[in-house]
Each structure stands twice: as structure tokens, then as C-alpha cells.
Amino acid sequence: MQGKIGLEEHFALEETLKDSAGYLPEKVWTELGSRLLDIQDRRIREMDANGVEMMLLSLNAPTVQAIPDPKMANALSRRANDYLAEQIAKRPGRLQGLAALPMQDPDLASRELERCVTQLGFKGALVNGFSEISGSPSGVYYDLPQYWPFWGVVESLGVPFYLHPRNPLPKDSAIYEGHPWLMGPTWAFGQETAVHALRLMASGLFDKYPQLAVVLGHMGEGLPYSMWRIDNRNGWTKAPPAYPAKRPLGEYFQENFYLTTSGNFRTQTLIDAILEIGADRILFSTDWPFENVDHAANWFDVASISEHDRIKIGRTNAVKLFRLGI
To answer: Any catalytic annotation for residue 105?
Structure first.
């Protein structure tokens, strides 16, 4: 399929590059680093060779979210966003941007998102999971009350918020002790992000801001397979949910969330996601440079779905959700 659009496609600054060390074997670090720093050369060649018309770019992880000082996090966000805007200006028909945000301070995050959308022309934001904040031993999650005004800004701007994974903090990683292979994309990324998404659903956030659009990568971080059980566990007891949200969580999942195929190139999983959330809410992505564009494209172009759904997932859903104007 020609004209595909990818939404979870990363880049790095020299100062954030080492944040991506450890996710892949050391022997491929030189290759990964080269891929992350490149925007205008190999990236475009990979797109051309695999029918990808446009990529929406975002800063690598965890970068901004791992900086405990809010002012420093804000400064890095602005540097990264300004640099990305400069790169987009060279090829606006091929590249667009998702803002990095200093979520350590909801007011700073709101202002930076407004700047990126209204002045730099960005199409939304991508945030690398929870944020670390000075004086707090735990990561801070965005269902907390202090973040609700920020979510109001997101809704008023009408842009999507991409919730991207990061590993749990060391103090929260006892379950993985002795099994480091479970960290990162193998398992910990998905578990961490799924819990964060469920916290957003259960908080009542989408009752207050019903037009919010949250994007999850990797075919939904395992949630499509689990949503029925989340809402219907021990159904014979008739126990009411012990959270503030007014509706079953599966309804928010179907109405406020979108999923991408990033890093999860399996037809059975795609079909399950379509059955759970609908083809209108699934979008093509690669997860470049951590995954290969050709692996994503070669799979997706022949996946056993209808051509109508292929066009929607590959292109038109993204055009509509991110208001790309193409």
C-alpha cells in the first residue's frame, strides 16, 4: 500500500541519545544511534522504499520524563520541539511533529503544548509515560487531580495525546528481579503503559473531558485482549466498581482511545484489536528506528484484512485524527 502514515516514529538529540541505550544489544548500538540521529536521509529513503508518505516524529524515551527538575525538563522540551520544527520545515509533506512535554509541571506542559500546536504547527503530543519529580520517590501519573486542567487544554486544542512506554522505576521493578530480559518492549513497557491507561479510564477523566483522544502503541499494550475481563470480573457478585468513572472502562477504551500497530506486526493481534475497538480507531505505525520500516510495511501490506480497512488503518484514520490536511 502506498501513502501510509506512521505515528510512532522517533528521533533523538545528541543530548538524549544515551537514553535509548540498553533497549537493544550493545553490538547494535552504533546502528541504532545512527538511526535515531538521522531525520532527513536514511529515514526518507526507508519511507520511499516502503510506501510511507509521512511520519509524525517524537523524541526518544524516557528523556524529558526522566528529568526531575521541572525547569530543566521544560528547557529540554523546548529545545527538542524547536529542533523538530526546523527539521519538519525542510520536508513538511513528509514529516510532522508530536510535542515533547514537561509533565512534571502541568502548567508548563499546557503552555508548551499550546506553543507547539498554535505556533509550531505540531499535530499533538507524545509523552513517555509517568514523570519523575524532585522530592517524589515515585513516578507521577496523569490521572491525578493536578493534571486535569492540562487535559482540558488538550481537549480544547483538539489534538491527540500519545501515551508512550517507559520502564518502571527500579524501586517498582521487584517483579523483574533476576529477569532483566522482561524489561523494555518484551513485557515491562506494555504492562506499565496499560496500567497508566487504566488509571486514566477509571479516574473519571473522560466523563469530564469526553472528547479527549489518547493513543496507545503496540496494538494497545495488551488491553484489547483484557478489557472484557477488566469490566466483568466476578460478575456474579454484582459488586459496584471501586473507582470514580461513571461507565464501564471498556466504553472509554472504545470511545476515547486509538491504537497503533507500532512494533506489533501480527495479523491475529490486529484482527483482535479490530474486533474490540473497530478499524476506525487503529492506525499504522512502525516504531522506527527500534523496529524496521520494511518489517512493518511488508506485513501490513498483505495482512488478511479488507482493503477498505487497510486504507483506513494505513492512512485515512491518521489524516482525520491528526488533521493532516492531505
So the answer is: no
Q: How far is CA 99 from CA 118, 199, 222, 313, 324, in A?
A: 12, 23, 25, 23, 15
Query: Whole-structure pTM over 0.70, yes or no?
Result: yes
CA angle 279, 220, 195 (to 5 degrees): 145
pLDDT tens string 115-151 = 999 999 999 999 999 999 998 888 999 999 999 999 9
Q: Which CA distances in Å does 222 have to 67, 107, 273?
A: 28, 32, 9
Annotated active-site residue in 19, 105, 143, 287: 287
Alpha helices by DSSP H, the chain: 29-37, 42-49, 70-90, 106-118, 148-157, 188-202, 205-208, 223-232, 249-256, 267-277, 293-302, 307-311, 317-321
Assess whether the previous peptide bond of 185 is cis (omega < 30° from 0): no
CB neighbourhood size of 35 (10 A): 20
What are the structural domains of the chain? 4-321 (3.20.20.140)
Distances (CA, A) of 225 to 158, 192, 275: 28, 16, 10
Phi and psi at residue 78, in whole multiples of 5°?
A: -65, -40
pLDDT digits (tens, 9 = 90+) for 7-42: 999 999 999 999 998 888 888 999 999 999 999 999
